[in-house]
Amino acid sequence: MRLFDLIILSAQALRAHLLRTSLTILGVLIGVTSVIAIMSIIEGMNHRVLELMEGMGPSVFIVDKFGLVTSEEEFLKIMKRKDISISDVRALQADCETCVEVGAKAYAGGAALKLGREKLNNVELSGTSANVIRISEYEIADGRFFSPFEEEHSRQVVVIGPTVKKELFADNNPLGKEIRINGLQYEVIGVSEEQGSILGNDLDKIAVIPISTMRKQFGTNQYLTILVKAPSPETMQETIDEVRMIMRARRNVPYKAEDDFGIITSDNFMALYKQITKAVRVTAIAIPAIALVVAGIVVMNIMMVSVTERTREIGIRKSLGARRKHILLQFVLEALLMSLAGGIVGIALGLFTAKTLADAGGLPFVVSTIAVTSGVVVSTGIGVLFGLYPALKGSRLDPVDAMRYE
To answer: Please, is 87 exposed, middle or buried when counting C-beta atoms within 10 Å of its C-beta (0-12, 13-18, 19+)?
Structure first.
């Protein structure tokens, strides 16, 4: 008997018990859908975080009070450190010979922006030095960034994000218009490039003003970070070492004591991120994997029922010359067809689910090749592995005893 004939025979047997076949396919489908959706979302999140880190620039690092905190105990210890000050920024600008640029950024938290009667709350307000545009990969879509002159003279100018433009100005040109930030009047001079969002956090709902203006009008107690640009990625460690030496000397850190400030690079941030998400990935995939095992057990049970119901048919076919391998192959093919059907539909549904969740969470939709390949391999494996035992049992039946079965 040819393989094609066995496939047709298996398909006909599955169609004869459509409800049972559908329920078996559903079990595989749920497990594969879960795996595909979860893996694709994790890949999309990794891609988004990598994009944000690349936005820092390959030769840029950050100096701040905290660094990368990994425990509550460490956080409580770090809270006792001195804050980063504007004088630290000035010292690095004056003394760091390997630094191409040294800039600063301060955060004022959520601010209220107002244009006439239109109001937008919880806008992330930050103040930066004018050279931040040259340090990071920050891009201006329309207008310009503020100049060193405007920073030096604490001008009330602001660069807004695309979300702020959309909410306050709709389709109108915001450049040259006056808006109020926490009650103070600012001139809009630029609109930044769209960055999108991540996990519901809108990265375009921002307003950037000169750091001198922020310190003058909002006080000097904002959280301050220093942005440093090295000559190249290859020489970045040399620049980090020089910055560390200058900062330790300024802050009177004893020789054998650890730094009382943090240094963050895109590489060590990504290393920490991958370490954290590795555990999340294992846990997230383990749950649908259990569903796949359950689906496999369902496939095996259904095939055992099918073998039992068709015992007389097996006996008749064997008495007419059907070989043991034909019986074995037919039942394995039946299990494989059900699993593959569930796997294929599960892959499509999983990708659709991942796309929907990615759009809702502001993540890029990434088709995970590993996830799709895993879906095909797993569904095939379930069919073969869990369908093999019932198929072996059916193929080993004695034809005389099988024909007498009631």
So the answer is: exposed
pLDDT tens-place string over residues 301-313: 777 777 777 677 7
Q: Which residues pair with 101 in a beta bridge?
A: 229
- The domain ranges of the chain are 3-52+272-403, 59-264
Place of tokens 């049972």: 20
For residue 368, the 8-state DSSP code is: -
| DSSP β-bridge partners for residue 118 | 115
Q: How far is residue 126's CA from residue 106's CA, in Å, rounded to a whole number? A: 6
What is the pTM (predicted TM-score) of this model?
A: 0.66
Contact 98, 66 (CB under 8 A): no
d(CA 139, CA 22): 53
The DSSP element (H or E) to which 126 belongs, if any, is: strand 118-128
To which residue do tokens 């490039």 refer? 193
Does position 397 have pLDDT exceeding 80, yes or no? no
Amino acid of residue 235: T
Look-up: residue for tokens 């555990």?
Answer: 279
pLDDT of residue 160: 93
Phi-psi region of 327 (alpha: psi -120 to 50; beta: other; left: phi over 0): alpha
Strands 262-265, 60-64: pairing is antiparallel
One DSSP character per residue, 21-67 reads HHHHHHHHHHHHHHHHHHHHHHHHHHHHHHHHHHTT-TTEEEEESS-
Q: How far apart are CA 281 and CA 45, in angstroms?
A: 11
Residue 75 has pLDDT above 80, yes or no: no
Report residue 220's pLDDT band, with 50, 70 and 90 as the boundaries: low
Single-letter residue type at 243 = V
Contacts of residue 344, Cβ cutoff 8 Å, sequence gap at least 6: 376, 379
Token reading at 95: 């003394």
DSSP-derived letter for residue 225 is E
